[in-house]
Amino acid sequence: MHPPVESDPVTAPGLHDVLQALREREPIFHRPEFGRTRADFERMTIADFFEIGASGQRYSRAHVLDVLEHRVPDPAEHTWKTSGFHCRELGSDTYLLTYTLEQGERVSRRSTIWRRDGDDWVIVFHQGTLVA
């Protein structure tokens, strides 16, 4: 027996500008207009940032930065599809963005906690979970 399929959550009307700003930054670390270098990625994340990968493994900021520094761009990235974006305010200048990412046959649900830092945005936490 499969659980019932739920519709995508709806972002509150007052958060549409935040939703748009954050949507443009996802998937994180794959938007060259927001960063290409280790220094860019350092500015993009808070000091105690971490992420949980689709495997369930926890990755420290230092590990993520090391991987990003040596990553070769995936030529298939231009075919990736994002959908179902939702934004929820968690606290003062802090937001949860969720969405679905299709990377060919691989489909994952993504969640990123973002914090507004002046005129910019920084990533607090990120998680990807494979869709069964």
TrEMBL record:
Q: Which residues form the DUF4440 domain?
A: 39-123
Pfam families of this UniProt entry? DUF4440 (PF14534)
Q: Which InterPro entries match?
A: DUF4440, NTF2-like_dom_sf
Which residue spans traverse the membrane? none
Q: Which domain of life is it from?
A: Bacteria
This chain's protein is named DUF4440 domain-containing protein
Protein's organism: Rhodanobacter lindaniclasticus
